[in-house]
Amino acid sequence: MKTLKQRLAKKIEPCYLIQGEDILLYDKALDMIKNACHLELLEFNFLKFDDDTFNGDLVIDTLQTLPMGSEKKVVLLKNISKFNEDFKKKLTAYLKAPLLSTCLVIFDFYNKFDFIISEKISAKRLDENSLGEIVKSELAESGKSIENDALKLLLSYCCDYYSLIKNELEKLKSCNFDVITTKQIEDMVTREVEYTVFELTEALSKKDGDKALNLLNLMGKDTKTFNLILNHFRRLFFVAISKESDQELAKLLNVKEFAIVKARQLARNFSKIQLKNIYELLDNVDLYIKNGQMQIENALYYLIFGILYC
Q1: Residue 30 to residues 26, 65, 78, Cα–Cα distance (Å)
Q2: N or C: fewer beta carbons within 10 Å in the chain?
Q3: CA distances (Å), origin 165, targets 16, 29, 93, 156, 208
Q4: Which DSSP symbol is given to 304?
Q5: Residue 150, CA atoms < 13 Å, CB-side half-sphere
């Protein structure tokens, strides 16, 4: 991902396969590709297929059709979760002799397209050492440095997602301090609580109690945090039992589509029985809070241990 802009400046490949868990990077990569292609008449030259609109033969026909009023066109396959062997064979055959005026972009959050040979873009989260070096380097360009404890806190607040860190760095670069401390991080950086809930869920699914408690300690011990956890696990349960597409579920639950994609991934770490039991546990704790039988902070710890041993 870090070298994509330079690669696009040299050559636009006929196919880009994007994989990884940092969901916000997918759209950033797509925007960079579309800009490099200098698309005209987007309604004709940017075509998207998702689970709702996917048709294998239509995709192949679209790939083989010339753009209209533009040198290039972009075809996006967005997290297609199901396709047959016939489509795999046709896509593989097409990519051996692709139409150079077509740029195929594949969002592959579910890792279904490992069979193709293409230019790959990683949307995986970087390790903390790599992220730390990037943060230090970008701050140094603005004549600033960051203390080690502050750096760790910044990464924690952003759950190691570079796309979130990048946004926060813009705030830190504009501040009046030459050395960034934990005080500036606490005052200026937005805690990505929803992302922390994703991380918390993953830790709970792996029975990693230490990490779950550390993540909970990053969050406020208040009603907002409880409601986030409550709504998040309800979402996981609905995703696990629902047959609707990601787009339909996003509309039904009034959330962004990336939240459904992430929820679907996390739900696979639990059985449906576990999610049902967690759902009931959350409802019981919600009732205890409303009846004054349990304080919020105690309820949150009770939930964490309850889910760990669910």
Answers
A1: 6, 20, 11
A2: C
A3: 25, 16, 40, 10, 25
A4: H
A5: 21
Query: Alpha carbon of 275 to those of 204, 230, 267, 271, 278: distances in Å?
Result: 12, 12, 8, 6, 5
CA distance 112 to 84: 11
Rg of the chain on CA atoms, in Å: 22
Are 217 and 199 a contacting pair, CB within 8 Å? no
- CA-CA distance, 14 to 26, in Å (whole number)? 17
> Which segments of 97-147 does DSSP mark as H helices, in order?
128-140
Q: Distance between CA 27 and CA 295 in Å, rounded? A: 41
Residues 6+ apart with CB under 8 A from 62: 47, 75
Q: How far is CA 212 from CA 141, 236, 237, 265, in A?
A: 35, 17, 20, 18
Look at the chain and count its residues.
310
Whole-number Å distance between alpha carbons of 67 and 86: 25
Q: Of 299, 301, 302, 304, nearest to 286 (Cα)? A: 299
**What does the pLDDT look like over 211-221, one tens digit per residue?**
999 888 878 88
Average pLDDT over residues 122-148: 90
Residue entry with tokens 């408690």: 213
Longest CA span, the chain: 68
